[in-house]
Amino acid sequence: MVSAFKCRTTPDRDWLDGRGKAPMIHDFDKPIEKTRIVAAMSGGVDSSVTAALLKERGYDVVGVTLQLYDHGAAVERKGACCAGQDIYDARNVAEQIGIPHYVLDYESRFKESVIEDFADAYARGETPIPCVKCNQTVKFRDLLDMAKDLDADALATGHYIQRAPAADHAKAQLMRAADPSKDQSYFLFATTQPQIDYLRFPLGSLDKSETRDLARRYNLPVAEKPDSQDICFVPNGSYARIVKALRPDAATPGEIVHIDGTVMGQHDGVINYTIGQRRGLGIGGREGDTDPLYVIRLAPEQARVIVGPRSALAVPRIRLTDVNWLGDTTLSSAARDIQVKIRNTMDPVAARLETTALGDVEVSFVEPLFGVAPGQACVFYDGDRVLGGGWISNRL
Amino acid sequence: MTGAYLDYNATCIPRPAAAKAAAEVLAEGGNPSSIHASGRKARGRLESARAEIARLANARAEDVVLTSGATEANTQALSQPGVTRVLLSDIEHPSVLEAAPMAQRVPVTPAGVVDLNALRALLTGQDNSGTLVAIMAVNNETGVIQPLVEVAGIVAEAGARLHVDAVQAAGRIDLDIASLGTATLSLSGHKIGGPTGVGALVLAKGTTVSAMILGGGQERRRRGGTENLVGAVGFAAAASEVLASRDDEQSRIAALRDRLETNLATEAPNAMILGQQAPRVANTSCIALPGISAERQVIAMDLGGVQVSAGSACSSGKVAASHVLTAMGHPPEIAGTAIRVSLGWASGEADVDAFLEAYGRLAAKA
């Protein structure tokens, strides 16, 4: 596999994982054995291999697992991270590879920073991405601070994203993972430059099967553990249930209205709908109108779900909030042609990024995009380089 | 154990005499309930061990029920038939608190001593024939010694029954079940340098208890299951050593602890010693460092080779804010920033030096 990580000088290419790969460049100004790295360990295979790779390389590795939510509430959840079984797994892995391991109780921080925000966003009719919030707050703010407090030189995670060291550039850069199907850059767009400087992502040049192979080679007890899916704190994918519990008002019933103003039916709360959704609307068509109907917009203030034909989903331009810009020159210095993703699962598409006279950041798509949902992220790319991104606003 | 081990209240470094005795009997085997020769030999060893363990509380051998540990002993004491109401102090160990989740709570004073007036008020004007009061002898986090004689007087006067969790008191202060006036008392093997997995429920003369673990009829039908001979023998060997050397050991430990606390004032003037106003056992020091979370302190100290603990570490390893310090009225800035330093038989000056050095570095960052 050719690494997409275009690193022209390699300060330390001798670290190979046994099959000729260099998972991470040593770019610290001290010897490896004197370099302390905190490895965030979720109990899954990726972060376990991350810790094992660093340990094998000779770093002073300290494993840390975050307890993020109550075991009891999550017992029915299979394949999610950071609750009881996962903490147990992380401890076993740490023991197996021979590193100290600690569990930090971040339950209240996670609730404040991630779960409450998730519920608020759903109640506003948005489609939030709690994983980004979690990376932004609990992991790359709180855990990163703890790593610094423990005199660590870096915090490493098992994310599939690459970090090009500063040696070749003005500053360290974020790059998409070598394996596009595993690339997690969409969830990491909000990583700030100081965070990038401190973070390490040893798996970014691997693909998942290689990670599994390494887990087996290290004889890790989680080598065959299924990947985590979806959102960790939502049991059985039932977002609506969690939001209803936290924000009972968000379950107000109301009307389903066509964009032309016709009332099409009733719904039992906007939180049960997602923009672009076609199935399960519970409404019939209209006479002389056989076009399938999609959810076009959610208007929680009027408790309305707005539906219309697919063509009404096309969006040519969006405005962003809370933009994280990682480019080399200031964002407002010029409009620029980049590639963007507005969903994790899509391929990047061409777009123009510019700031308006009022300072708003706007993105115009070369071809209008379907299924643009407020609350999701618009992530910027220049080829493989990640240039940051912003949150899709519900106004333009 | 490597580095400076200062967490004896979590578990005591095994006493070599206990390890040796346990290893010998492990190699020997035998079921104390068997009729044949090897069974009789095992029975003899078990009963000698029981007698030695009984001496920890100046009890009779026949009043010692051997258990899997103090958690089981506490659970058994609190789960007796006929108990209709339970009163617990706010600073009890989780093995007591969680054995009676519906219990009423007795508060403690800011010094960490059970509030006797509150206890009296909770017992006044009621029929206490079904009331069980559980108060620990020594708190595991602060080392504060509880006024058990006064507690027992109040409980007896009210006609209630008393249970004492004496895990942290054994081998540190006088324990005499008769003069304490408690019906039951719990002990732990590994807290005095014996093996984990063995403890005892000690009964006052005339007290009866029902079994929780039924099958087999062992321990005079008070605790079923083949006796843990290895554990009992190790526990007994630790008890013998503790009983023989207690006063010397405790005064040596007290000198170490006092030096630690005195030097702390210069090494880390921002640190606060909690529970110091009340009488304490010699080995425990509870130290808050506002501005640095307890979990960070424990991790940083461990990475620096100094082993201490914070609050009550649960089995997953996460550190929760101390319920004991909270009950003493300390706000989260203090209750969440306190670590426990606890010394024991193998502690020396080097351990105190290592602690002071690591702690000084940490305190400089607060």
Q: Low-confidence parts of chain B lasting 5 or more residues at pLDDT below 50?
A: none
CATH superfamily of the largest domain in chain B: Type I PLP-dependent aspartate aminotransferase-like (Major domain)
Helix content of chain B: 25-40%
Helix/strand class of chain A = alpha/beta
| Tally of discrete structural domains of chain A | 3
* Succession of helices and strands of chain B: EHHEHEHEHEHEHEEHHEEHEEHHEH
Q: For this structure, what is the CATH homologous superfamily of the largest domain in chain A? A: HUPs
Portion in beta strands of chain A: 25-35%
Mean pLDDT of chain A: 86
* Alpha carbon gap, first and last residue of chain A: 43 Å
Global shape of chain A: globular
In a few lines, what is going on in this structure?
The complex is a heterodimer of chains A (396) and B (366). Chain A is α/β, with parallel strands linked by helices and 396 residues long.
